[in-house]
Amino acid sequence: MTTTNSVTIVPQTCEMTSPATVSLGNHRRTAFTGVGSTTPTTSFRISIDCTGVQTAVHMTMSDPSNVANRSSTLPLTSTSTASGIGVQILRGSTDTLVSFGPDSAVAGNPNQFKLFDATAATPTHIETFRARYVQTAEKVEPGTANSVVTMTMSYQ
């Protein structure tokens, strides 16, 4: 049997729009009262457009500076001048901390979470996250404080 039809298989993907940077603002050293103390949160949104995709959409956030990080705290980048603090990301309007996982789209990836079910009727979704500084050491030194996170989508 011979066919003359040309078939193109297109992977299921969504388009994600997120802010390039999220400013957590300036905070006095006195805002940190001990290990585990946090600053107020700053909200940011990620828009996910899955037009043409009908599947469950999952996400894993990863720490690119330490791929083994499974905690809920991102370290500061090596170019940061502050010390004794890290960054936490919270999901939705609850106080659910995001724990980091491997940069992988494999179903069941550690600390992967479901965002939504993309359907023809609801192909887009806006997810709200919040970020904050957290004290990680007894002593906090002022300076610049930056972290980096990667986000990997998984379609299941």
Structural overview:
The chain is mainly beta and 156 residues long. It is built from no helices and eight strands. The strands form two sheets. The protein has a five-stranded antiparallel β-sheet, with no helix packed on it. The protein has a three-stranded antiparallel β-sheet with strand order 6-3-8, with no helix packed on it. 21% of the residues are buried. The model has no long low-confidence stretch (mean pLDDT 91).
Helix content: under 10%
What is the alpha-carbon Rg in Å? 19 Å
Average of pLDDT: 91
Would you tell me the structural class of the helices and strands?
A: mainly beta
Q: What oligomerization state is this entry in?
A: single chain
Tell me the strand order in the biggest sheet: 1-2-7-4-5
The overall strand count is: 8
Succession of helices and strands: EEEEEEEE
Major sheet characteristics:
5 strands, antiparallel
Straight-line N-to-C gap = 33 Å
Q: List low-confidence stretches.
A: none
What percentage of the residues does DSSP assign to strands (E)?
A: 25-35%
- Total helical segments: 0
Task: Give the CA-based shape.
Answer: elongated
Q: Tags for this entry?
A:
32% strand; mainly beta; elongated; 156 residues; five-stranded antiparallel sheet
Topology summary:
Elements: E1 15-17, E2 42-49, E3 56-62, E4 85-91, E5 96-97, E6 113-117, E7 124-135, E8 150-155
Antiparallel strand pairs: 1-2, 2-7, 3-6, 3-8, 4-5, 4-7
